[in-house]
Amino acid sequence: MKIQRALISVSDKTGLIPFAQNLDAAGVEILSTGGTAAALREAGVKVKDVAEHTGFPEMLDGRVKTLHPMIHGGLLFRRDNPEHVKQAAAHGIGPIDLVVVNLYPFERTVAREGVTLEEAIENIDIGGPSMLRSAAKNYASVTVVCDPSDYPEVLREMEEHDGGTTLKLRERLAVRVFDRTARYDQGIARYLQSRQQTGASFICSQPLTAHLRYGENPHQKAELYGRFDEYLEQLHGKELSYNNILDITAAVDLIGEFSAATVAILKHTNPCGVGSDDDLCAAWDKAFATDRQAPFGGIIICNRPLTGALAKGIAEIFSEVIIAPEFEPEARGVLQKKKNLRLLRLRDLPKPPPRDIRSVIGGVLAQDHDESAENPADGRIVTRRPPTQSELRALEFGWKVVKHVKSNAIVFAGADRTLGIGAGQMSRVDAVRIAIWKANEAGISLAGSAVASDAFFPFPDGLAAAAEAGATAAVQPGGSVRDNDVIAEADERKMAMIFTGKRHFRH
């Protein structure tokens, strides 16, 4: 389908001028409006105003300019339908063969702090989506472009096909249009719902990032959607798997808790060990010492540039993924000798998602992301003995980690490292026992440690087991009907205990 007339109206003018210059050179008549027309004329491109084409002036501050039969008739009439062709000719409607439109930046506008409802409303595009949808519906005859990245391919096809494009390209571009307009409308609905706090429906639309090799298991298909690659850049190694991405997400979420130089090791989204130290190698030693077995095939993350010395230590064990804000050249040289090891540069700590989404029978569950970051020092001391300053530092460290461990979760900690972790048990006392067993297996003494529990101790037995292992201080949310029994157990053992009032279940 040879392109003879194009309508161009864009907010994002990336690549616009060379694209339009090529169209102009190919003899394509260009219709345009407003700022787009002005930019094209300034670049020497011949442009016909839409108002001249329709014979109807722009009005209502530009709200009505392309909503006209001369525009939508030129897009929608079927070139293979004699009756359509006859009606178009009778009303003087000429075909429009190419539409180049991108939309008012509504999403960017509402993301700004302090944006008003009026500003948001004015950035709801009406004419743009209407033209895109009309052109996309008639992709059998009309080429439609909503993304500047598609300009080169359109020009290439025009050059190869005597000024026209193939049906295959037009179909693909049409699909992109309906995906874009759907996401655009959903963004508007989400914003207005949040303003009105209606929660009328669940709205989620994310662009496809990648088709994954498979899902959690090889017989499951899987895809990645959204903006994952805006935050993490893969520098080396084979492609990421579904399980890698889950672990990476958990790792980034965990490392965001720490401002001090920290190294964390995770496996199946659970922390295996976490250590903090100005010397990254020392931080690694602390993290790895917590559990020397579980890290095999795990994820390692640090919040400082990864040094050559640390790389040599890490390289001694098999890991799936290593994440850092930067890798020193020596570190890359060491780690890239393992061709399958994935190295990811964390460009920036992402803002937590506003909502956590999970599939359930017949629908989805949605909840606020757990961003609570309370400090045990601000909690309520419920025992006769308050914690010492060193115990407080250990309680704070353990509390940061335990919220990232699957429930029921227990973490024994020192001031700058984990000592034993018990995850995902059906009873809390079993989580305590596993954490103690893991510490014993690693040859770590729990004498003088602090113990953190993601939810309350329902019975004194869990706390008693922790005390017998050597813990002298505990932090937990509180809220059990047996809190008084647990407090009495702590007092009897001369433990210090703090209630935070916040639970951190992670199912």
- The number of helical runs is 19
Strand order of the largest sheet: 8-13-12-11-9-10
CATH topology of the largest domain: Rossmann fold
Number of domains: 3
Q: Can you identify the CATH superfamily of the largest domain?
A: Methylglyoxal synthase-like domain
The percent range for strand residues is 15-25%
Rg from alpha-carbon coordinates: 30 Å
Low-confidence runs of at least 5 consecutive residues: none
Overall geometric form: elongated
> How much is the average pLDDT?
90
At CATH level 2, the architecture of the largest domain is 3-Layer(aba) Sandwich
What does this molecule look like?
- With 507 residues, the chain is of the alpha/beta class.
- Helices cover 38% and strands 19% of the residues.
- It folds into 3 domains: 5-196, Methylglyoxal synthase-like domain (Rossmann fold); 233-346, AICAR transformylase, duplication domain (Cytidine Deaminase, domain 2), CATH 3.40.140.20; 378-499, Cytidine Deaminase, domain 2, CATH 3.40.140.
- The chain has a 6-stranded mixed beta sheet, with helices on both faces.
- The chain has 19 helices and 21 strands.
- The mean pLDDT is 90.
- A hairpin with a 4-residue loop joins strand 17 (410-413) and strand 18 (418-422).
- It is elongated, with a radius of gyration of 30 Å.
- It has helices at residues 16-25, 34-42, 50-54, 69-76, 82-90, 106-111, 117-122, 127-137, 151-160, 167-196, 228-231, 242-255, 280-290, 308-314, 329-335, 389-402, 428-441, 460-469, 483-492, and strands at residues 5-9, 29-32, 48-49, 98-101, 143-145, 208-211, 223-225, 232-236, 262-267, 270-276, 298-302, 319-324, 342-346, 355-360, 363-368, 380-381, 410-413, 418-422, 450-453, 473-476, 496-499.
